[in-house]
């Protein structure tokens, strides 16, 4: 039981059998999470540093909980209030942490490619928890795992990703992951939020959200990332919600069951209404639960431990 890579930098570097191994391992850990005692001693001699140079709630907590469930020791580092604000470089920051005998680094950074840069300069395994607008591999893995759990398989399924595709690292990682697993993928949203030439990745493009929903079995709805937009790309949030937001009447008109997903945080009333986010079609909370199991699997497999030690 081992991955073909030393680091989880992006889905692009993974082989299909790596993804399948992560899923099988996550299946085991999900069973652990249903028990009264939700821990295994698999990584009780391993130290993991969570280094976040960008704000995060769900991802950081999910990683920290996954590490604790594996009995690993954790160090949590946030750039705000640290020596980074005094001009310390990324390499110096991480090397100082590694000098404390850290075995693995989970890193989120605003610069695309930062995890790759770090992997070329230090020996510890790196897990990319999101880099700029590039990739967010564990989110894509938990999304695909959640689809597999609901539909039984991913191969041949039609999945549409709706919203701010241009600024979303979740979208890119999802495209890579779903295509590797044999799904058909479509991206949908305003033309100003869909990158040119994205068809080169083997995906369909649709600017009419209703048509995208009619085509798909699963809709993964993304939020508008205003913090990454340097100029206006649509008129108002109200207009966006009117033309591209997912609401119950839209789903009811399809006359079929849709699986609704969202990586969070949700902007209710903008990209998705509460009556959809909280409906029986939604697997949003399943995604959150599965995130812990997937991150446990990734950390465990990258650690190189051969026995779960239950």
Strand order of the largest sheet: 7-6-5-8-9
Helix content: 25-40%
N-to-C SSE string, H for helix and E for strand: HEHEHEHEHEHEEHEHHEHH
- Name of the CATH first level of the largest domain: Alpha Beta
| Percent of sequence in beta strands | 5-15%
Kindly report the CATH topology of the largest domain.
Rossmann fold
Specify the structural class: alpha/beta
How is the main sheet built? 5 strands, parallel
Question: What is the straight-line distance between the termini?
Answer: 16 Å
The name of the CATH superfamily of the largest domain reads Aspartate/ornithine carbamoyltransferase
Number of helices: 11
Number of domains: 2
By oligomeric state, this entry counts as single chain
CATH structural architecture of the largest domain: 3-Layer(aba) Sandwich
- Average pLDDT score: 91
Rg is 19 Å
Low-confidence parts: none
Structural shape: globular
Q: Can you put this structure into words, describing what you see?
A:
This protein folds into two domains: 11-136 and 290-303, Rossmann fold (3-Layer(aba) Sandwich); 137-287, Aspartate/ornithine carbamoyltransferase (Rossmann fold, 3-Layer(aba) Sandwich). The longest helix is centred in the last third of the chain and has 20 residues, at 284-303. The protein is globular. Strands 7-6-5-8-9 form a five-stranded parallel beta sheet. With 310 residues, it is α/β, with parallel strands linked by helices. The two termini are 16 Å apart. Helix 5 packs across helix 11 (284-303). The chain is built from eleven helices and nine strands.
């Amino acid at each position: 039981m081992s991955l073909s890579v030393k680091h989880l930098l992006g889905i692009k570097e993974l082989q299909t059998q790596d993804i399948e191994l992560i899923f099988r391992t996550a299946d085991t850990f999900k069973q652990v999470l249903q028990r009264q005692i939700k821990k295994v001693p698999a990584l009780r001699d391993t130290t993991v540093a969570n280094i976040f140079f960008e704000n995060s709630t769900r991802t950081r907590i999910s990683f920290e909980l996954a590490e604790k469930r594996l009995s690993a020791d954790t160090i949590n580092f946030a750039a705000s209030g640290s020596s980074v604000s005094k001009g310390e470089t990324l390499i110096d920051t991480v090397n100082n942490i590694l000098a404390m005998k850290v075995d693995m680094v989970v890193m989120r950074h605003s610069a695309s490619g930062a995890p790759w840069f770090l992997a070329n300069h230090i020996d510890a395994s790196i897990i990319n928890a999101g880099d700029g607008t590039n990739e967010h591999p564990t989110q894509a893995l938990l999304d695909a795992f959640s689809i597999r759990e609901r539909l039984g398989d991913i191969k041949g399924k039609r999945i549409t990703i709706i919203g701010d595709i241009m600024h979303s690292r979740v979208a890119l990682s999802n495209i890579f992951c779903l295509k590797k697993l044999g799904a058909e993928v479509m991206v949908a949203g305003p033309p100003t939020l869909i990158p040119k030439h994205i068809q080169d990745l083997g995906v369909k493009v649709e600017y009419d959200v209703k048509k995208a929903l009619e085509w798909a079995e699963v809709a993964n709805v993304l939020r508008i990332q205003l913090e990454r937009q340097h100029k206006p790309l649509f008129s108002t949030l109200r207009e966006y919600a009117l033309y591209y937001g997912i609401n119950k009447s839209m789903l009811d008109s399809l006359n079929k069951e849709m699986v609704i997903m969202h990586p969070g945080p949700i902007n209710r009333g903008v990209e998705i209404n509460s009556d959809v986010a909280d409906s029986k079609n939604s697997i949003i909370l399943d995604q959150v639960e599965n995130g812990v199991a997937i991150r446990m699997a990734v950390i465990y497999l990258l650690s190189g431990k051969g026995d779960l030690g239950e």
